């Protein structure tokens, strides 16, 4: 839990900053991008010169980014200030998650780390890290409140995108009464809620649907590990013309299988190895599982990168799941 002193210091630094650089984690999700753009719009409205970027070039960002206000503050990673006076990191659980932008942490004058991952070590000079928060967007909302700032439709839309996705459309266990109160406050602003929801949840392509069909044919149940898993190869993406960021929602389809508590989707990476996304239906702390492989995340949603083959990756995951709870069997 962030201290009152940390909150106060973050407010003081941002109130007095003439220039602010904002960065989020590589391959940003709506919480990372929404939090970053919301804070960018808010600070710019107060007169600060703002630049924002993810480690991914703007041309490689998902289509749903086009539905978020504040895109005018996005720049290419290489166009960020080399030695920012004030750097704000959003939704990055560790410096490594900033990928090609990680060097900015050492070069910045002040680093405000805003995040809700429990594995975050607190790498900022000021750390607003609260694992109990539903989303980083929730923390940005609270920061804006502390700065006595008025919400605008643009800021509200960005924050809502982060909160609605990181709570699984308000279905996950992190959907507290306070989360719903914040969401209701955001919805009081006049942004196009239906258009935003469509961009986030109903904007797939026909090639994506075909890829989904291929993935579902590969679904495999491992009862002794209480695991259901599937995989995507680079060849699948290349043959179908599907961008890697379009595959982020595949895990949410696999996780619907009631026969296992843990779901995994393994996606082959350009440089080799597999990105492994894990989800739990409630009984398994998948963040603890991913930490064994150098990853991290939340109790019910986490991930890591495996440098070995598909078969070896699955075998290692199965071994850990069985070791964690050898008596567990699929329902």
Question: What does this entry show, briefly?
Answer:
By secondary structure, the protein is an alpha/beta fold. The protein is built from 12 helices and 11 strands.
Please characterize this protein's 3D structure.
There is one protein chain. The protein is α/β, with parallel strands linked by helices. The protein folds into two domains: 4-201, Alpha-Beta Complex (inorganic pyrophosphatase (n-terminal core)), CATH 3.90.1640; 206-324, Diaminopimelate Epimerase, Chain A, domain 1 (Roll), CATH 3.10.310. 37% of the residues lie in helices and 17% in strands. The protein has twelve helices and eleven strands. The strands form two sheets. The chain has a six-stranded mixed β-sheet with strand order 6-7-8-9-11-10, with helices on both faces. Helix 2 (30-45) runs parallel beside helix 4 and helix 2 (30-45) runs antiparallel to helix 5. The longest helix is centred in the N-terminal third of the chain and has 16 residues, at 30-45. It is globular, with a radius of gyration of 20 Å.
């Amino acid at each position: 839990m962030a201290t009152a002193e940390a909150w106060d210091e973050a407010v003081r630094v941002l109130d007095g900053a003439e220039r602010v650089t904002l960065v989020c984690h590589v391959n940003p999700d709506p919480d990372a991008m929404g939090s970053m753009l919301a804070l960018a719009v808010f600070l710019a409205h107060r007169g600060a010169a703002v630049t924002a970027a993810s480690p991914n070039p703007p041309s490689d960002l998902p289509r749903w980014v086009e539905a978020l206000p504040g895109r005018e503050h996005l720049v290419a990673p290489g166009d960020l200030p080399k030695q920012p006076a004030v750097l704000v990191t959003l939704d990055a659980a560790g410096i490594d998650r900033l990928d090609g932008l990680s060097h900015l942490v050492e070069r910045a004058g002040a680093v405000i780390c805003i995040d809700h991952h429990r594995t975050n070590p607190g790498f900022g000079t000021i750390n607003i890290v609260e694992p109990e928060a539903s989303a980083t967007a929730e923390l940005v909302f609270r920061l804006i409140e502390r700065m006595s700032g008025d919400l605008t439709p643009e800021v509200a839309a960005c924050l809502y995108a982060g909160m609605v996705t990181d709570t699984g459309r308000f279905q996950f266990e992190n959907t507290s009464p306070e989360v719903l109160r914040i969401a209701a406050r955001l919805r009081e602003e006049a942004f196009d809620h239906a258009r935003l929801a469509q961009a986030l949840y109903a904007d797939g392509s026909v090639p994506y649907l075909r890829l989904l069909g291929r993935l579902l044919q590969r679904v495999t149940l491992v009862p002794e590990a209480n695991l259901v898993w599937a995989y995507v190869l680079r060849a699948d993406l290349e043959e179908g013309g599907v961008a890697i960021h379009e595959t982020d929602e595949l895990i949410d389809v696999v996780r619907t299988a009631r026969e296992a508590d843990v779901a995994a989707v393994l996606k082959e990476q350009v440089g080799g190895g597999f990105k492994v996304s894990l989800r739990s239906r409630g009984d398994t702390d998948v963040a603890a599982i991913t930490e064994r492989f150098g990853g991290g995340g939340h109790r019910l949603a986490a991930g890591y990168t495996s440098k070995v083959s598909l078969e070896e990756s699955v075998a290692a995951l199965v071994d850990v799941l069985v070791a964690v709870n050898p008596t567990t069997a699929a329902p």
